[in-house]
Amino acid sequence: MLDKLQQIETAALTALDAVQDEAALDAWRVRYLGRQSELMQVFSGLGQLSKEERPAVGRAANQVKVKLEAALDEKRAALKEAALERALREEKVDVTLPGRAPRRGRLHPSTQTLRRILGILGEMGFQVFTSREVELDEFNFQYLNFPPDHPAREMQDSFYVEAGERGDNPVLLRTHTSPGQIHAMRYYAAMNPDNPPPIRIALPGMCFRYEQITARSEVQFNQVEGLVVGENVTFSDLKGTLAEFARRMFGPQARVRFRASYFPFTEPSAEVDVECFVCGGKGCPVCKHSGWLEILGCGMVHPVVLQNGGYDPQRYTGFAFGMGPERQAMLRHKIEDIRYFWGNDIRFLKQF
Ligand SMILES: [Zn+2]
Questions:
Q1: What pLDDT, in 10s, does the model give residues 323-349?
Q2: How far apart are alpha carbons 233 and 228 in whole angstroms?
Q3: Domain coverage including residue 263
Q4: Least enclosed by CB within 10 Å: which of 45, 79, 113, 250?
Q5: How close is the Cα of 331 to the center of ligand 1, in Å?
Q6: Which of helix, strand or coil describes residue 35?
Q7: Residues 61 and 186 in one domain
C-alpha cells in the first residue's frame, strides 16, 4: 500500500509538470485530489486494513495529500505569474511606434477667400463691421435709395419672413450686405451727431436671394462690402483703393479697369474688372479670352444714403464697393458649379 501511495505521488507530480493552463490544472485537481481519485480511495479503504497497517498507511496517505495540495497551490501561483508576465509582454506600449496623425480639418473655400479679403482690407486700415442677416425692408431697400416702386427692386427677388404683415416694411433675409452701411453710419454718427467721425469699414456676411438654383446662381452667398466716408473723399480715392486692393489680392502685376454701371445706392457707379489672375491677361477659358475678370461693383455713396445714415451730404462724401468670395474662389480654383459650396460634400471641400 505504501508503494502504491509512492506511485500515486510520482504520477501526480509528473502530470502536474505538464500542466500549462488553468483548465488543465483544474482537470489535474479532479483527477488526483478529487473524490474519485486513487488517493481518496486509499483513505476510504483504510477501514479494511489491519490495525497494525492502518496508522502508517493513513499517515503516509496524508503526507501525499498535503504534498499534492502544496504542489497544486504552487503551480497555480506559477501559472498566475506566467499569465501576468505574458500580459505585460504582449500589452506593452511600444513608445517607438510612429503615432497616428489626427486628420486635419480645413476651412471652407469661401471662408478662406473671405479671410484673405478681410486680411488685406485690414492691412489697408478697414475695420470689420457685421450686421444682421434678417432685415427690415427699409434697411435693405428704402434707406439705400430703393423706393417701394423703384424698378431696381425687381433686380433682387427676396425671401420674405413676414410678407404682408408689416405694410410697406416687411421683414426679409438681406439680399446684400449694403444695409450694414446704414447701420454702420448711424452707429458712428450717434457717437457725435454734430461732427460724425470718418468711416473705413469692411462689411462681410451671408446674403440671400430667391432664385432658381443653378450651376451659376445660389440662394445664399457671401458678400464683402467696403465703405469709406469722410470729408474730401473722391472717386480717385476709390480707384486708388481698389487698384491697391487688386495688387495685394491678385499679385503686384494685377491691373484694374472701371466700366460705368448702375446701382441705386451709388452715383456714379462702376463695375471693376481685374486683369485675369489665371492667365495674367493673355486670354484663357476662365476669362473667356478677354484677359479681364469682373469681380467688383462700386461707386460714390449716393447723397440720399449718406443722409439716411446721419452724414450730411453737403459736408461728407464716401465710396463703397462689394465683391463675392465664392465668385473669386470659383475663378481662382476653376470651380464650374456654385452648388458645390453648400453641398457639404467632403470630397469637394477637402481639396482646399
Ligand atoms: Zn485669363
A1: 999 988 888 888 888 899 999 898 999
A2: 8
A3: 109-349
A4: 45
A5: 9
A6: coil
A7: no
